[in-house]
Amino acid sequence: MTEELITISEAAEILGVSIDTLRRWDKSGKLKPIKISEAGYRLYYRLQIELFLDNLFNLAKNWVLKNNDMPPNFYCSNSAVFQTRLTQMQDTLAKVADLSSIFPLIIAVAGEIGNNSFDHNLGNWPDVPGTFFAYDIHKRNIVLADRGLGIFATLKRVKPELNTDQEALRMAFTEVISGRAPESRGNGLKFVRKIISENPIGLVFQTGDAELILTKESSKLDIRPSTESFRGCSALITF
Amino acid sequence: MKIELKKFGTTLISRQNGREAFAALQSQLTTLGEKEDMELDFEGVITFSPSWGDEFLTPLVKQYGNRVVLMNTGNLSVKATLELLEKINQTSFNIRF
């Protein structure tokens, strides 16, 4: 087990919740810190937080990293299947009282990320086409992943000056690409960033060896090297 | 002419579906008067995203300009998408409140 200790603010950022929420979870026993520092600060294991997020994320990770099996109901072989399952999720979230105003934003964020996988890999899937798509309404998270080309390889076609996954990830989430040539290219990830910066929604997005963490009021993009590298994209949305 | 977007679905999210909706709309537009407004009503739409909007709204506004009038745009995903499309296309939509 990796024993990297992180602070409550880092844990809050990964989970996409406030520090106050984590303090409440500590008192209620839902998620307790591993220890309290000498100065009285709550400390957590990074892995503890990642595991808390969900086993869904591990399932997705093992699929993109090792091509492990996944439950058939999590697999969307094409965009029509994805659209159908997204609409089902929309119907489920619509029934949650405290999400009544923002659930369309959560669906739009998941829709843009999921559709990106199909739009940018159509005809170019390296091996298994389609996406992993699962959600847990109780833990309030959504997991999406694909074994596609990844952002760096697809963006480099239109932006040859790109050299790394981190550069590509930053460009995808920041630069409005209006030329759209030679292919129809969306600005979906800029939309995702805007929505998350204004709402209580969190995102951990990985492509290649780069990872991005976005939360409400993230003023700058927190992009860092990821612990494990893989070819496609994965996203964990918390709400 | 009034077009109810919910007739294209209540979850308007992918480029592919946006393109299909735009193609389907063309047959209706043959009856649009030369100076007539095209009212696009978002009433009943639950989720709207930039991919769909860019394939449907962007070409309509390019062709018909301010004659494209948007109505019932209060849904948060509609609002956020319209703001982004305005920024990308450096234009502003004709929204009727």
Give an overview in words.
The complex is a heterodimer of chains A (239) and B (97). Chain A is α+β, with helices and mostly antiparallel strands. Chain A has two domains: 5-47, Multidrug-efflux Transporter Regulator, Chain: A, Domain 2 (Orthogonal Bundle); 54-238, Heat Shock Protein 90, CATH 3.30.565. Chain A contains nine helices and eight strands. In chain A, strand 5 (131-136) and strand 6 (141-146) form a beta hairpin. Chain B is α/β, with parallel strands linked by helices. Chain B has one domain. Chain B is built from three helices and six strands; from the N terminus they run ββαββαβαβ. Chain B has helices at residues 15-29, 50-64, 76-89; strands at residues 2-4, 11-12, 38-41, 47-48, 68-71, 94-96. The longest helix of chain B has 15 residues, at 15-29. The radius of gyration of chain B is 12 Å and the shape is globular. The model of chain B has no long low-confidence stretch (mean pLDDT 94). At the A-B interface, helix 5, helix 6 and helix 9 of A face helix 1, strand 4, helix 2 and helix 3 of B. Chain B: This is DUF4325 domain-containing protein. Chain A: InterPro entries: DNA-bd_dom_put_sf, MerR-type_HTH_dom. Chain A: Pfam families: MerR. Chain A: This is HTH merR-type domain-containing protein.
Précis, in short:
With 239 residues, chain A is α+β, with helices and mostly antiparallel strands. Chain A has helices spanning 8-15, 19-28, 46-53, 55-66, 79-94, 103-121, 150-156, 165-174, 188-198, and strands at 5-7, 35-36, 42-45, 75-76, 131-136, 141-146, 202-214, 222-238.
Mean pLDDT of chain B: 94
Oligomer: heterodimer
Cα-atom Rg of chain A, whole angstroms? Answer: 18 Å
Gross morphology of chain B is globular
Question: Main sheet of chain B: which strands, in order across?
Answer: 1-3-5-6
Largest sheet of chain A: 5 strands, antiparallel
Number of helices of chain A: 9
N-to-C span of chain A: 27 Å
| Helix-strand pattern of chain B | EEHEEHEHE
Largest sheet of chain B: 4 strands, parallel
- Number of DSSP E strands of chain A: 8
Shape annotation of chain A: globular
CATH class of the largest domain in chain A, please? Alpha Beta
Summarize the amount of helix of chain A as a percent range. 40-55%
Number of domains of chain A: 2
**Low-pLDDT windows of residues of chain A:** none
